[in-house]
Amino acid sequence: MNLLQTLLVVASTLGFAWGPAYATESSDSVKHDHEYETEGGHEEVRQEEEAHVRISLALAEQSGLRVAEAGPMVVTETRTSYGRLVTDPERLAHVTGRFNGQVRRVEVSLGDAVKAGDALAVIESNESLQSYTVTAPIAGTITQRNVNVGELVNGQPLFAIADLDTLWAELKIFPGQREDVSIGQQVRFAIEDKAYDGNILHLLPSKNDAPYVVARVAVDNNLGLLSPGLLVTAKIVVESSEVQLAVDRRGIQQFENRTVVFVQEGETYEPRPVVLGRSDERVAEVRSGLEPGDKYVVENSYLIKADLEKSSATHEH
User: Fold this and answer.
1) pLDDT tens string 214-255
2) For residue 171, what are the contacts with CB-CB under 8 A and spacing of at least 6?
3) What span, in angstroms and rounded, lies between the C-alpha atoms of 98 and 121?
4) Residue 226 needs a FRET pair 20 to 30 A away by CA distance; which of 24, 165, 178, 275 works?
5) What's the pTM?
């Protein structure tokens, strides 16, 4: 079921009409310079090309329409870089036994979460014939288990534990970008359609004399949604400037061959033509068409556009 079908079901459940059923007082969304009939009688509209839809607050919430206020924002210039996520080497522990001996018990499995001090295995020493417990030196996830009951311990690594709450993004910076990139710059990531932010903490030579340097950025993974090895696309902010009036680019639409945003006034939404200036992948400066504090639809504005276009086509026929 697509999004529009889902919203139709929601609307019918709530007892609202949809597009022109966005409108709660009129069955027509687009105003034309003529008289037309509504469910409540006749209404005369004299404003040519004025278009709007009316949406109850409940239906707007269920439809996922989100608004924001136009105002000052920061427009940035960025450079694109690519890389992958790796485990923080300072948050990785390889665990061995203190004495050679035989494994009597293993307490953890691959993928288990442990705390510092948790028991990992019990080993009987060859010299004393006494058992001792191997414990976790750090909190994290068991990423390697190289031992089973009955096997002999002779100094080899038994377990690897990685704290994955913070990962490193290692980005390749090629010679054409090097002069624009420096430690401390903000970096924006797109990882599996989710947004993350960080800052460049290190610039290191590449391994094996590859023709690039590596920018290392710490990435917060407290939610556990990321894993080492994931490929990342990064936008490195090399310059930024504040503009007095801007909108989120997600709210910009093309309607009737004009660039518009859909402005909200109460339960009414109307397309407002705007002239844009500087922009980046997130923000666009507005040079005319809006005032500071105007509320506009920033998410799912295409639903309003589709309803207006459908209503306009109906009137044309």
Assistant:
1) 999 999 998 888 989 999 999 999 998 999 999 999 999 999
2) 81, 82, 83, 187, 214, 215, 216, 217, 232, 234, 236
3) 12
4) 178
5) 0.61
